[in-house]
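Folding Task

Wanted — backbone structure
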Amino acid sequence: MKIVIAGASGFIGRHLVRHFADAEVVTIDRQPNGHSLTWDGPWQRELEGATAVINLSGSPIAVRFDAKNRQEILSSRIEATARIGQVLAELKNPPKVWINGSAVGYYGDAGDRELTESSPLGSGFLAEVCDKWEAAARGACPQGIRLVLMRTGIVLGSDGGALVPLRKLAKLGLAGTVGNGRQWVSWIHIEDLCRLFRWCIEHPEIEGPVNGTSPKPARNEIFMKRLRDNFVITWTPAAPAFVIRVVGKISGPDAETLLFSQKALPEKAQGGGFRWEFEAVSLALQNALGVGDFEG
């Protein structure tokens, strides 16, 4: 098995490289990084005969959503996706499957509605990003290549993603409920997400959008309480919605990443028989944070 990963230097990409230790892995990044190929290097030939290509390329979203950053967030994803598609169309023996990044931000602020892969597009900047990124992949993917669009939720791991700033806040006693705390948080443990990528590669019937989330989303108030439990914090001040909106305008991430409610359910993975190692947020946080004893 040969896996080509674009955007491998990010949090998810680094874990995927380790997860596919039993395969030949080729990585592509914008900047030289160890053994990674750059977009200006000879990466195109590595796609010939590969089993799968995974595209996670894109600038970080944990920034203020001003005009400049919005343009960079969009263009970095769309341009990389288009380049991969152009190369795939020229290959004699292209990968059988292309997994392209996306996120549950696609659904916008959905309140208490249950969101499956067939749910409609929402509103907001992150929904726009996901929609255009997915459309770019669909438009660039040649016939005969199976396209999977991985709509990830908040990814829990010890060395990146949302838990890095949340852990700092918890240690300072500031990991309180965000807004009214009733918004749904769709999350997944990094190990389960890596296993889900492999599962999508190995199951040829899986294509199109796939919700990369646990089947047990949690309300923000519960998510933050489970986080505090790991640090034996019984109470901490809440962060009112108006404070989040003001701070989001100054430093980011924007308020919609913290206040929007998305109860995304992984209908395709559940229907196809995928099994999670970390379904409950309490166990996922305990394992990811490395707090206490954990088995299973």
